[in-house]
Amino acid sequence: MPREWQLRELDKVVGAIMRTGAATFSGAPGAGKTLFAGFVFDALREAGLVERLMVVVPRRGLAKQWMDALEVGCHLRLKPHSAQERPNQDGVVVTYQSLTERSADSLETHLIMAERIPTLLVLDEVHHLARDADSGHAAWARPIARLAGDVEAGQQGIAGILNLSGTLWRSERSERISTVRYTPPDADNRIRSIVDGEVTVQELIAVGQLRSIDLYRVDAHVQVADYADLSYIEGNLSDVDAKPARAAVAGLADINSWRTAFVASVLDKLEKAHRALNYHVKALIVAATQDQAEKFRDEVDRQMRERHLQPLAELAVSRNEDEAQITLDNFRAQKRVGVLCTVDMAGEGYDCPEIAVLGYASNKLTSLYVRQVTARAMRVTDRERQIGTVLPAIVVLPDSTELVKEFLRYMTPYLHEIRADEVSLRRPEREGDGELIWTPPLRRFNLEAVQVGDETVTVSFHDGTSENVATDIAATLAVHFKAANLPEIYWPRASVATQRTIGDLLQRRPFDFRPDEDKQTRREPSLEEQCKLVQDQLAERGRWWAKHGDTPPGQFNYMVNDRAGIPNGKRAVASLDRLQRALQIAEQHIRDYKNTKSIR
Length: 600
Prior knowledge:
This protein has 19 helices and 22 strands. The chain is an alpha/beta fold and 600 residues long. The chain folds into three domains: 4-199, Rossmann fold, CATH 3.40.50; 208-415 and 440-516, P-loop containing nucleotide triphosphate hydrolases (Rossmann fold, 3-Layer(aba) Sandwich), CATH 3.40.50; 526-597. A hairpin with a 4-residue loop joins strand 6 (149-150) and strand 7 (155-156). Helix 2 (33-46) crosses helix 3 and helix 8 (256-277) packs across helix 9 (290-306).
């Protein structure tokens, strides 16, 4: 049966397509946009406006999910990865990438089929079509524009269009999507997408169709090297400024002690969720790099063996996308507890309601990415519906202020800004002769040392409010919750209810604050430490040249040393002045090379 919001929004969206030919729907991840698209198609087919369905998705693995969901929920049969369906099928589901491949007839066949049979074109996660010139997604937008036309120019080339996205968005006029209608440009020359239907996170949590969020924030005392100022920044991660904190978060998983504590926290929450439901709930750990994802996989299995239990971690990374997709499908289907370690492979559209715990160990702060990943832990299982109890979605993350703010922001309605760094899933290193070559930026900050700190819980609610649970208060109340046989997974929420009820009696007193030594400090390094900081930067430039340059790395390093007056192999005993001069020479040489080769 359709959900209440699906019935409410169906007439709005169907009416917009009947009047104008196109509609845009903004629905929270996990809301049920797939089945909603099926209901829209059925309604339009019943009205005699369309006879065929074409769905376009951003990732290959999503095609099967769409095919399965529509067949079970709407009795619609789609053929995946094909421009033409079989007899007795209702249409096709393909990827945006497939429309850009240089096959002789793929796009042409789509055009012929849409011209021959009135077709509803459903564009999943349509914000990916924003035409940022650097990301390669302009290549996605061009065939869609050819297939669908331009709705604002009145040149629509297909019977009906349904744009689907997880959020409202605003973007530059140059990034306009041809299938979307926009408001007039504002004072900043930005345009906003016009939506014809919407369902929010807050609404879905309130009616028990999505889980609310509990944040478990793992703090750490960090030391970060600032290469620009040749200084060290020290303090608790929660007190460190945004840029060095982001650099610290990127390197935390490479520190054994922190990785051990983080995985232990994820497994602890997973066990509590399992006991609360007596069901095969699962966890997802999102790392900053593929190497870190592998380390998390190994650490999960190591800790399981320590508990005299079977290893339960799976790895899905893009080094082998076909193998990763098999892992994702198997992980979703398995009827046992598990932990999936990945980077970007289990994001938007990955439907695995059993994921109840998310370990977020990435330094990505873009709103779109955070929203999509968080949504993986917010879907509700059939088991929860059966017993009438919905678990909170547990998120374990580093206690970085900007990162925590972004997760809390998920609970607040807002207008999303589309930027090139958000819509780009992966940037190509080389797009072709004479075109842009993208390379990772050189680092300013580098994590040097970590000491694991305390864990703080932040409980969020569907009304947009949130509240912290202090460690000492939680420990005091835990004894009473245990005696009352309250499942541990609900203890933080019970603590907040107690705090809100009793108020002052349990809150920290106004003069009970952290001592000054816990705040961020900037320490001037010794001469030897300054030299080491510069040497580290020189080594990184050498590694960059080894990967992207056109001469052997040894020749590059010899040239840099020679021009700076440093005997070859003597950087370890060179003066700070000469090391800094060598760094300037290396950076200028790389800049000149980039300009010559059109490297960004």
